[in-house]
Amino acid sequence: MAAPPPPVIVLVRPQLAENIGKAARAMLNFGLTELRLVSPRDGWPNPAAGPAASGADQVIADAAVFADVAAAVADCAHVYATTVRKRGVTKPVVTPEQAAGAIRVGPGRSAVLFGPERSGLATDDVALARTIVTVPINPAFGSLNLAQAVILLAYEWSKAEALAQPPAVELEPPAPQAELDGMIAQLDAMLERDGFYHPADRAPTVRRTLRTLLTKPGWSAQEVRTLRGVLSALDGAKRSRG
């Protein structure tokens, strides 16, 4: 069975073209490209959306405009309404992660509704959806802007997709113990010569503390050589001044 298509993002009565552009940018960051607009307040297309999209130009160019929510989701088998309030409508309530999981297994096309910036989705908008998506958020400050809300849903959907990741960098193995001991001995000799271990009865405790500190990071051989070079440079500078 073919995997269901990526979800459609539907912005219902968005107020600012800049916010549409930012939502498009958030979508494309996580591999979503189908944007639908329901009665954008300032009309469409709107040149103010382009700069805010920061390169997500194709998402903006392909955005479809609809007169109402019903028309925008007519071809979708599953409709999710994002809201922090249930608005008196009794429907299943899920998190973005749960919604993304359901969208990935389908079947059929899914749409996610996002309401106007100032007021969110109206009760009649929510009534068209089968499921409500609510973000667990600080109850004392439940204010997300439009692009933030879109990116939360898009990110959760993308986690199972094969999107590009930063290349993995293999860490160098830790240096052999003998090399680490050599660095510690070099430092110890410098500190001994400069009278660092004072009073003398505290010297064993201080040496153990320094050894613990210097063995924690798991220095690579190159890092040990670099640190020893630093110690040698400091020692040589001190000797030349002396």
Provide a descriptive summary of the structure in words.
30% of the residues are buried. The chain has 242 residues and is α/β, with parallel strands linked by helices. It folds into two domains: 151 residues, Alpha/beta knot (3-Layer(aba) Sandwich), CATH 3.40.1280.10; 65 residues, no CATH class. It has ten helices and seven strands. The protein has a seven-stranded parallel beta sheet.
Notable characteristics:
242 residues; alpha/beta; Alpha/beta knot; seven-stranded parallel sheet; 10 helices; 44% helix
Write a brief caption for the model.
44% of the residues lie in helices and 11% in strands. Helix 1 links the parallel strand 1 and strand 2. Helix 1 packs parallel to helix 7, helix 5 crosses helix 7 and helix 8 packs parallel to helix 10.
Write the layout of secondary structure elements.
Elements: E1 8-12, H1 17-29, E2 35-38, H2 49-53, H3 57-61, E3 64-66, H4 69-72, E4 78-82, E5 93-94, H5 96-105, E6 110-114, H6 123-127, E7 131-133, H7 146-158, H8 177-193, H9 203-215, H10 221-241
Parallel strand pairs: 1-2, 1-6, 2-3, 4-6, 4-7, 5-7
